[in-house]
Structure formats: C-alpha cells, structure tokens
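Record type: monomer structure entry
Structure origin: computed from sequence
Chain ID: A
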Amino acid sequence: MGKNMNYVVDSAGKGFGLIKKSAVPLYLDLVKVSALSTLVSLIGLAIVGILLFVSLGGTFFASLAEEAGPDFSLGTILVLLATIPIFIIFSLLSQAVGSVVFNVVDNRTQGKETTIIAQSKKNLMRVVRYTLIIWAIGLVILLPVLLSIFLGGMGAAIGICIFSALWAVAYVLFLFFTQFGMYELVLGRKGAVDSLKSSATLTRANILSVALLDIIVIVVGMATWAGARLFEVILQFIPATLSLGGVWSMLLGYAIYLVLYIGVTVLISAFSQVIVIPVVYNFWKGLKG
C-alpha cells in the first residue's frame, strides 16, 4: 500500500509542478476548450429546440385549445426523427472539442501551445469512433433494464430494480477499467478498441494505485460539484427577485440566470480540470513507463 501511495503522491507532485509553472495559461486554455465544447452543445440543442418548436408548437397549442391530444402528421414525425441525428452529431462534435484538454496538458508540459480548433479536427474521427463504442457498450449493459420494462406487473418492477443495480455496478467497473482510454486515444494515438484494451490492461496491473488516484479525483469532483451547486443557489435569487416585476421581468431573470450559470459552470469545470488532468496525465505517463 505504501508503494502505491508513494506513486500517487509522486504523480500528484509532478502534476502540481506543471500547475505551479503554467497555472494561468493552462487554466485559460482549458476555459477556452470548455467554453467551445459547451457552445457546440448549445448550438445543437438550439437547432433541436427550434425544430421541435416549429414542428410541435402549432399542434401543441391547437391541442390545448381543443382539449384534445396532439395530431402528429407525417411531416412532424419526420422532423422529430431528424432531431435525433442532429443531437448525436453535435454531441460528438462537443466530445471532440472537449478531448483537446488532454492535448493542452500534454503540450503545456512540453512548453507548447495548442490550437484548439485544429486539434479538434485531428481528434474528431478518433473521438467519434471511441464515443460510439462507449455508447454502444453502455446500451448493451443497460439492455436488461430496458427489456424488464416490457414485462409488466410485479415482474417489471423487480426486474428493473435488480437489473438497475447490476447495471450500476457493471457500468462503474467499466468506467474504472477504461478511465485512461481517452489518454491512450488522444495522446497515444491508438484506435478506439485498442485504447480501451490498453486502459484495462494498465488498470488491472496497477489496481490499488489507480483506486487511490480515483479517490483523489472523486474528492476534487465532489468539491467542484459543491461549488457549482452553491453558485446555482446564489444565482437563483436573480429570477426570484425579478419575478416581482411581472412575467417579462421573470423571463429576463431566468435568461440572465441561465447565461451566468453556464459561464460559472465553464469556469468551475476548467478549474477542476486544471487540478485533476495534470495529476492523472503524469500518473498515466508513469504507468506507460
């Protein structure tokens, strides 16, 4: 245990050495990556939202006026189906941009800068294949839960409870053994499947050290989550206060709240990454030898 702890502490020391040397430029780079990734996701959501409003808005309000269920036309159904690939495409693009955080840390360690958009393009197809495989595996693990829903009655309730618990355990184990997959993919330049296999091999061979590292990551993540929730509570006073001025003031308050909340989330996310990724990066480099 002492040897494992020393290895984790040594990796943390190297990570904090990078933070001490390049804290401000590293943080600004990660803020840019997080902001661009969030922007891509928001654009996708906006497109989906507009399509849903255009296709369902009139039908929805008409059904309210007539007190009847919505009548879906073929065109409406096609538009609804079109939102699915749009959502998936922008989610994958956001993932590709987000993957640049690993390049940022790697380049800053070597004293280099990172061109975010250019690097996103280089990572794109690798990240797309990797993410689709992750989604597929997650769906396979979740499949028994989905099938239980169709059983009906008490069997469905029992099946959902049992398989949900098993799914949670299986998915946590899957994430545990593949946590270095993105490092292998983006920095090791391996294929999607090989990245997952390599991560599992490294984790299995150093399971105690990895578990100790994860405890540190979880603690930082919990602190970040608590900070985000605190800001969320504070920001909720904006729409609550403006609601006293009427409906339009309340809507303005919610708009201000949403913009500020997204901005604060980006800043806090980047702060968490500044602490975690350099440590995990050096830990992974050490495992690679």
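Annotation 1: The chain has ten helices and no strands.
Annotation 2: The mean pLDDT is 85.
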